[in-house]
Amino acid sequence: MNKYILYTSCLMLSWGMGLSTPCNAQNKRNAKRAKTTKAALIVNINTTIVDEDNRPIKDAEIIASEGAITHYTDKEGKVSIQSRANGIILVEALGYEDIIVDLAKEQFPKVLKMKKTEMLASGKYKIERPDGGVTYQKNLVGAIGSTTGEDLSTYPDFSLSNTLQGRVPGLVVRSNVNGLGNNTATLYVRGLHGYTNNDAIVIVDGIERSMDDIIPEEVETIDVLKDATAKILYGARAANGVLVVTTRRGEANKRVILASVEAGVMLTTRLPKFLNSYDYATLYNEARRNDGMPDFYSSDQLNGYKNSSGVNDLLYPNVDYYDYFLQKQSMYRKAMVDLNGGNNKVRYSMIVNYVGGNGFEKIGDRPDLNRLNVRGNLDIKITDYLSVVADAAARLELRDWSSVDGSTTFSNLSTLRPNEYPLTISSDALGLEPDAKGVPFFGASIRQPENLFANMEYGGFTSERYVTSQTNIGLDFTLDKFVKGLRASAFMTFDNYNYFRQGQVNVYPTYAINMINGEPEFRQMKQLNLQDDQSRLGEETRRTLGWRANVGYSNRFGKHDVAAMLAYHYYQDEVKGDAQDVKNTNTTLRLNYGFDNKYVFEGDLALMGSNRFEKGSRYFLSGAIGAGWILSNEAFLKDCDVVNFLKIKASMGILGYDRSTDFLLYKTAWQNGDNLSLGEQNKSTYHTTQLVRLGNKNLKWERSTEWNIGVEGFFLRNRLKAEINYFNELRDNIIGIQSSAYADVLGNFVSYHNIGKVRNNGIDAYVQWSDRNGDFSYQVGANITWSKNKLLKWDEVNFPDSYLRSVGKPTDAMMGYEALGLFGKDVSLGRNTSQLLGNYQEGDIAYADLNNDGVVDARDRKMLGNSYPRTVLGIDANLQYKNWGLYILGTAELGLNVWKNNAYYQNKGEGKYSVLALDRWHPENNPNGTYPRLTTTEGENNFVNSSFWLGNGSYFRLKNVELSYTITNKKENALAKKIKIFGRGTNLFSLSKEKDLDPELINAGINNYPVYRTLTGGVTVTF
Q1: Burial of 208 (C-beta count, 10 Å sphere; 0-12/13-18/19+)
Q2: pLDDT digits (tens, 9 = 90+) for 433-449
Q3: How far, in Å, are 62, 150, 770, 853 from residue 91 at the CA level?
Q4: pLDDT at 508 over 50
Q5: What phi and psi values does residue 648 have, to the nearest 5 degrees?
Q6: Does residue 28 carry a pLDDT above 50?
Q7: For residue range 991-1019, what is the model confidence (pLDDT) as tens digits?
Q8: Long-range contacts of range 687-690, CB-CB < 8 Å, 24 or more positions apart?
Q9: How far apart are CA 566 and CA 88, in angstroms?
Q10: Structure confidence by residue, pLDDT tens digits, 195-239
Q11: What DSSP character marks residue 741?
């Protein structure tokens, strides 16, 4: 596989180099034939960029060398560039019309005047709308945040979603624990909206797709749609927020060939620490004495563990599972070729990317991931009125590992006791002949008949294949020849997704050891079972279909700007074997009006359709309106140098939502039940029928009523930009079972109703300062999202004790008991309150009797914390000095809690002991201990959700750093225009009150892979 990886990377890089070489070779041949031709001449241009009043424009961008080199004007507006005599030069500046100078037709002027235009009204600030239209940032009345693929490319990761953390205000990215390349993030927009199902949807090039099927280099922009006017056009699935991913398209008058390679290591961060065999056995004896039982391990056995020879000690094994089965680093690798360019007729973008890596397992076949992405986007202008869009993309992913996946591996590492069994047993000890193939004999125990070492090293293998193909075809009609401003388009997408897993599972004999009269006796726990063939372990086939047709009109009459767009959108998601397909339609009408570049208005209507409801209720009419006032165009701010652009905006709307609604809830459903044997000798079999649910044909759509008020602006010669939005949302008609209103004897004879209501509100904001001074330029910024919701109505008993109710609290409330301390240390065991949670004694946790009824039971639980962050921060800085560059990103989640209820924190029963057990309370051995007494039972009193196990989940993390050095060759005839050498790092350190495990992912390293730090280096060459 390593040879395959090396071959693939070299092939891609060589191909990119080869594509660039013929172009330069052709130029060389031309030069030899006619050294004086205009195509072969290189010209030096010295110019000054000024506005209409002859004032110099600082930091104007001059793009030369077919898009490969960017120059900036100094404070006097001056710049020197080199170009081919027939080259094309682009000039851009914020607040001015773009200028294209074709040197084959004209000379570049000594002084170039740029015409002022409306701020945020150029192509760079164009926002593609889902109905086929466009809106410029200046006229936007809604709330949309964005980032670019170029920004995200500094973060080396297997999942695009993980690169978004801390980038966009209003977007909350929650990481997850999973195996190699599977730890995709959950995306939230502006908090928790309803009772369940709060994540946003992702749209890639017009249809709902997974963003983790693509890479940052494929992405042009990612827009986060946050308010009603922005979301309504995406239909019934969009009320929780939408991330719109637009892949890169070719740019006219540019031709860039880019090749990049990157490699590095992934390093484990915080891992749990567990006790060795001697300490475990010592404390286990103490736990038995706490439970009134004699010691299990004798002093000779304790000495044996203390002097253990290691993992294969027959009688006294001592296994540090994390050290033996894991290595602290694994590999990350990536290679890419990118071609982008075109002219006024044809534009193209093509990307080929390989990314791969290995897992942290040391034993057996290390998990190996290899992924290949290919994308080609093509735009062709057929005639003056017809353009064609044709896109194709594919992803091939290969994964291989042993028969034990990451989840099973780490669950074993965190639960297998250090003295559970020796990993291998000699044939002499067993009295058996050695295996002819050299396979050892494996230890086991009565509790654990399987051997982790045997399963990972000899237990077989697993292979996964994941293949996707995505196709987009579109037609754009410009119908100005019939009616000025009239446009129409049609767009279709078709995707296929295929997943297949196969493997082979081999089982080898394992032997548990019992001591009989001082001699070991072996009991076979597993029998030999070797597979001859591979097995199909899982598969899934999925396809999606979407299409859109629209017709629109836009024009300007004096001071009046008018636009209208009518569109129809259809979406279908089909999974082979599923009883129901997802089918949605959305018919929309969008009206826009602007007056005198000062006042802008938008109105939207959407008839949303869903197949989740009864035929008469499958459509929901949604509406949204918004308005904006551009104060910077008013006379009192028109010539203000401090305020360059300032807009106040507000919007409101009512949206339907169907993603939280299951299929066929309007139908009463039955299923085949168990068989019943009756009659003489029970020889007669009768079939039974069971009720699944009682249908409700009167179910309504879940509804979202939303407000947004915001201010955005550019200040101090566009160096400072900022935006702040306040949002308020009422989600009602939430569907649930109203079981609390009926007696339990009814069972499932209770139907679903519209019973829930949730209020969510908060703010999101960002501020950014950027400037350039000679060879030094910098940009620093920060964004914040604060949100909090409250459950206003739900199905629950109206308890007299308000602290028990869910209504009135956030939907992420963490309910539990209030811990007062430990009996015998902090609280007297003889207090006048009984606890009914389980047996308790000195050293166990004492709880507060909240209702003062003399007992602690389920009615004494209250809200202790919340699991979703109240505040999310992102802070970044981008510094450039001459050829050096430094990018830094920090992220933070504040105001949240975590339950410490995994195998590291809760040591009980026959389980493993972590180092926390050393601080257990014991009246003699450790009277100042803060951890509950040890017990060989399940400890029902201690291990319930309570404030004792509530942790502070707030943290700050240095998320991403890139240090780079760029060599720019400004000579027009150079083969390589730019060479960027870079080093990158992720998850470099974190600050939090939780010191043992990662506060963001408290189960990382326990249930699956740990949080890892990535350090890479690479080079990018632009031709």
Answers
A1: buried
A2: 999 899 999 999 999 99
A3: 5, 21, 20, 78
A4: yes
A5: -105, 135
A6: no
A7: 999 999 999 999 999 999 999 999 999 99
A8: none
A9: 38
A10: 989 999 999 999 999 999 999 999 999 999 999 999 999 999 999
A11: G
Token pair belonging to 891 = 């992220």
Tokens in use for 258? 């880019």
Environment class of 540 (CB within 10 Å of its CB; exposed 0-12, middle 13-18, buried 19+):
middle
Contact 747, 741 (CB under 8 A): no
Q: What is the sign, positive or negative, of the torsion defined by CA atoms of 794, 795, 797, 803? A: negative
The letter for the amino acid at 902 is: N
Q: What is the rounded (10 degree) CA torsion for 224, 189, 204, 244?
A: -20
Answer yes or no: pTM beyond 0.85.
yes
Mind giving me the DSSP string for 937-963? Answer: S--TTTSSSBGGGEEE--EEEEEEEEE
Pseudo-torsion of CA 945, 279, 1010, 357, nearest 10°?
-160
Q: Give 588's strand partners.
A: 567, 606
Return d(Cα 798, Cα 813) in angstroms, integer: 17
Mark out the alpha helices in 431-539 (DSSP H runs): 452-457
Classify burial at 745, counting beta carbons within 10 Å of its beta carbon; exposed 0-12, middle 13-18, buried 19 or more.
exposed
> Which two structure tokens, joined as six digits, stand for 838?
């389980």
Tokens 């083969």 correspond to 975
**Which DSSP category does 398 fall into?**
E
Sequential DSSP letters for 329-358: EEEEEEEEEEEEEE-SSEEEEEEEEEEEEE
pLDDT-based confidence at 40, cuts 50/70/90? low
- Strand (E) positions, 359-505? 368-381, 386-402, 424-425, 441-444, 460-478, 486-505
CB 755 within 8 A of CB 734: yes
CA atoms within 13 A on the CB side of 165: 26
Which pLDDT band holds residue 1 (cuts at 50, 70, 90)? very low
Rounded to whole angstroms, what are the CA distances from 379 to 263, 339, 387? 34, 14, 7
Least Cα distance to 423 among 319, 282, 272, 566 occurs for 319
Q: Beta strands of 51-130 (E only): which ranges?
A: 61-64, 69-72, 78-84, 88-92, 99-102, 111-113, 126-128
Give the integer Cα–Cα distance in Å for 783 and 767: 7
Q: E strand or H helix at 264, and its extent? A: strand 254-268
Instruction: Count CB atoms within 10 A of the CB of residue 530.
Output: 11
The position carrying tokens 């929650």 is 174
Amino acid at 350: M
Most confident of 576-580, 613-617, 876-880: 876-880
Q: Residues, the chain, total?
A: 1023
Tokens at 636, concatenated: 């009192």
Residue 9 has pLDDT above 60, yes or no: no
Angle between helices 299-306 and 277-290 (to 10 degrees): 150
> CA angle, corner 756, sides to 753 and 758, nearest 5?
160
Rounded to a whole number, what is the largest CA-CA distance in the chain? 109
**Which tokens in the block code for residue 330?**
């694994």
Distances (CA, A) of 1 to 5, 260, 323, 367, 372: 6, 21, 26, 12, 14
Q: How far is CA 218 from the centre of its chain?
A: 17
What DSSP designation does 576 have? T
Q: What is the percentage of the chain residues whose pLDDT exceeds 70?
A: 96
- Could you tell me the pLDDT band of residue 83, with boundaries at 50, 70 and 90? confident
d(CA 69, CA 971): 10
Alpha-carbon Rg for the chain, nearest whole angstrom, is 33
% of the chain residues with pLDDT over 90: 83
> Residue 798: exposed, middle, or buried by beta-carbon count in 10 A (0-12, 13-18, 19+)?
exposed
**Residue 717 corresponds to which amino acid?**
R
